[in-house]
Design a protein that fits this description.
Number of helices: 22
Structural class: alpha/beta
Helix content: 40-55%
Length: 549
C-alpha cells in the first residue's frame, strides 16, 4: 500500500523510480591504538586502496570526457607511494588503518595546500579519496552522490551546491531532500537545471531500491505507488513535456493580458540559451561574477566589455542589470567590512556601494558606455534599498552618469511599506522574493531548521508584494518580480493577480510558467491572489489558490 510524504515541490514536474540514498559524511576515526597486528592493518588498507582505485577508474571510464581525467587522477592519488609510506609509518606506530589513512591523507593535503597552485587545488580531492578508503575499511557506503548503475531518485539530507551542480541528469530522475526550503540553494539549483525535486520532506525515511513518485506540483512523494499511480504520473509527465514543447509565444494570460517573461542570468554565457527558451529579455543580470574572484574592483574598460557582450545578445530587448550586490554571504575585500557580527544586517548592497562610491560610479560608467554601443533597452537597479533616500541617491547618480532608466530592488519590508514614496523617486521596482521572504520572516534562507518559514507563499510576503504593486500603479511605474517566486507557475499567476507587471526567472522555468499563465484570465488571477492573501499561512495560501483555480 502506498504512503505519502509532504515537502515543498520545485516546479511542476514529476518522476518515478527507485531510491538511492546519499550516505552522510563519515565520523572521524578514533585514535585509539589498534588491536590488530601492523601486517593485518596494512593488508586491510591495501585492499581498500585497490578497491577504491578500481572503483574510481571504473566510474571514470563510464563517465568519459573531462570527468574521466578527474577520476583517474583521484585513483592515482589513492595509490600514491608517498601516501602509502605515510600510512604504513602510522600503522607501525600503533594506529588503526582507518586513523592512519585519516591522518596521513590530511597531512599530505596540508603539504599540497602549502605548495599552492594546481597541487593546492587537489587537496580537497584527497579528502574525498580518504573518505572512500575509510568507508571501505568500515564496510559502509562512501559519502557523496551514489552511483547504483541505473537511473534513480536521489534522497539526501541536503545537497551541497557542488553536489547539485554536478548531478548526472541522465541518471538522477529526481531529488528529495529532508532539509531545505523553497529558497534554499538546492531548490534554486534544481530549478535552474530542470531537476524534479521535493525539498524539506522531513519525514522521508526511505531506503535504497524503494519505488517512489516525486510529484513536485503536488509537494508530494508517493512511496510504494501502485501501477495505476505510476501510469497516471507518467501520463502527466508526457502531457507536461508536450506543453513545454509547444511553440514559444510571448508571456500572456488567457485573455491576452501581456506578462513579459524575462530571464535571470549570472553571466553573458547564458544569453543564447535564455533566448532559445523564449526569454523576452533579462529581468535580473547579476554582476557579482565580475567582482567575486578579484582582490580589487575590475576596471571600467573590463566591465564595459562584459556588459557589451550581454547587451549585444538582447538587441531591442529589455535588460535589467543589478549593480554589485556584495556583503553578507558575498564579502569582498575591497568593499565590505570583515568585522561585522551580523553581516546580513550590516553594510551590504547599496549601503556598501554608497560607502565606496567610486566602485559604484565606475560600474555605472561602464554600463553607460556599453549601453551606448548596443541597441538593448538597458535598465539598472540597486540592491537592498531600504529607504526613500537610498532610492533617490541611486537614481540621481545613475542618471548623472548617463543611464536612462534606474530602479531599485525591493528585498526588505521597509521598502515594500514605502513603495509608493520610493517609486515616486525612481523609475521602477523589482521584487527580490528570496531576500524579502528571509527578512520578512526573520528566517535565514540557508537554515534548514527554519525552512518552514521560508515560503514566498506566506500571506505576509504576498501582502507586501501587493503594496509594492499598488505603489507602482499609483505612480504609473512598472513592478516586476525577479526572485524564485516567479518560477513557481501557480504563484506566478498569483503575482500577476497582485498587480505585478513582469516575471523574471531561471530560463528552465519559462516554459512551465508560460503554459500556466495561459490557463487564467486577469480576473481569474485576481481571484487566486485574493484567496491566497486572505489565508493564515503559506500552506493555506497555496491550497486556497489551488481551490480558486
Amino acid at each position: 500500500m502506498s504512503a505519502e510524504i509532504r515537502g515543498t515541490g520545485v516546479g511542476l514536474g514529476n518522476a518515478s523510480g527507485p531510491v538511492a540514498v546519499m550516505a552522510a559524511a563519515l565520523e572521524p576515526p578514533s585514535d585509539a591504538p589498534s588491536t590488530r597486528t601492523p601486517d593485518e592493518e596494512k593488508t586491510a588498507v591495501a585492499d581498500a586502496v585497490s578497491a577504491v582505485a578500481a572503483e574510481l577508474n571504473d566510474r571514470g571510464e563510464r563517465a568519459g570526457g573531462s570527468a574521466r581525467d578527474v577520476l583517474e587522477a583521484q585513483a592515482m592519488m589513492a595509490e600514491d607511494p608517498t601516501l602509502e609510506e605515510l600510512v604504513s609509518a602510522r600503522i607501525d606506530g600503533g594506529a588503526t588503518g582507518e586513523h592512519a589513512v585519516y591522518a596521513a591523507f590530511a597531512e599530505f593535503a596540508e603539504q599540497l595546500k602549502e605548495i599552492g597552485g594546481y597541487l593546492g587545488e587537489r587537496a580537497a580531492d584527497l579528502a574525498d579519496v580518504a573518505q572512500r578508503i575509510i568507508a571501505h575499511l568500515r564496510g559502509v557506503p562512501a559519502p557523496g552522490v551514489p552511483e547504483p548503475g541505473h537511473p534513480f531518485v536521489l534522497v539526501a539530507t541536503d545537497l551541497a551546491p557542488a553536489d547539485t551542480a554536478l548531478l548526472d541528469l541522465d541518471q538522477v530522475l529526481a531529488v528529495v531532500t529532508i532539509e531545505g526550503g523553497p529558497t534554499s540553494h538546492t531548490a534554486i539549483l534544481a530549478r535552474e537545471k530542470g531537476i524534479v525535486a521535493v525539498v524539506g520532506a522531513a519525514e522521508a525515511d526511505l531506503t535504497d531500491g524503494q519505488i517512489v513518485i516525486v510529484d513536485a506540483a503536488q509537494d508530494l512523494v508517493i512511496v510504494d505507488p501502485s501501477d495505476a499511480q505510476i501510469a497516471e504520473a507518467e501520463q502527466r509527465a508526457a502531457d507536461r513535456e508536450a506543453a513545454r514543447n509547444a511553440p514559444i509565444t510571448p508571456g500572456a494570460l488567457a485573455d491576452g493580458t501581456e506578462v513579459p517573461l524575462l530571464a535571470n542570468l549570472g553571466s553573458a554565457d547564458g544569453a543564447a540559451e535564455a533566448i532559445e527558451l523564449g526569454a523576452e529579455g533579462v529581468g535580473l543580470f547579476r554582476t557579482e561574477f565580475l567582482f567575486l574572484s578579484s582582490d580589487e574592483a575590475p576596471s571600467v574598460a573590463d566591465q564595459q566589455e562584459s556588459y557589451r557582450q550581454l547587451l549585444g545578445s538582447f538587441a531591442g530587448k529589455k535588460v535589467v542589470v543589478r549593480v554589485l550586490d556584495a556583503g553578507a554571504d558575498k564579502p569582498l575585500p575591497f568593499l565590505t567590512d570583515d568585522d561585522e557580527e551580523n553581516p546580513a544586517l550590516g553594510r551590504r548592497g547599496i549601503r556598501a556601494l554608497a560607502y565606496r562610491e567610486q566602485i559604484l560610479r565606475d560600474q555605472l560608467t561602464a554600463l553607460a558606455h556599453a549601453d551606448a554601443e548596443t541597441d538593448a533597452d538597458l535598465w539598472v537597479m540597486a540592491p537592498m534599498v531600504a529607504t526613500v533616500d537610498e532610492a533617490e541617491y541611486f537614481t540621481s547618480l545613475a542618471k548623472e552618469l548617463g543611464l536612462k532608466t534606474a530602479g531599485v530592488m525591493v528585498e526588505v519590508p521597509s521598502s515594500a511599506l514605502l513603495a509608493e514614496d520610493i517609486l515616486r523617486q525612481t523609475d521602477f521596482a523589482s521584487i527580490g522574493t528570496n531576500d524579502l521572504v528571509q527578512y520578512t520572516m526573520a528566517a535565514d534562507r540557508l537554515l534548514g531548521s527554519v525552512a518552514h518559514l521560508q515560503s514566498p507563499w506566506h500571506p505576509g510576503v504576498l501582502r507586501l508584494i501587493k503594496m509594492v504593486a499598488d505603489g507602482g500603479a499609483a505612480n504609473g511605474k512598472p513592478v516586476g518580480v525577479c526572485g524564485e517566486a516567479a518560477a513557481d507557475p501557480l504563484l506566478a499567476v498569483v503575482l500577476v493577480g497582485l498587480g505585478v507587471d513582469t516575471l523574471s526567472m531561471s530560463p528552465s522555468a519559462l516554459a512551465d510558467v508560460r503554459a500556466e499563465l495561459k490557463k487564467y484570465t486577469l480576473e481569474d488571477a485576481r481571484r487566486l491572489a485574493e484567496a491566497a492573501t486572505a489565508a493564515s499561512n503559506a500552506d493555506a495560501a497555496k491550497a486556497a489558490a489551488r481551490a480558486a483555480a
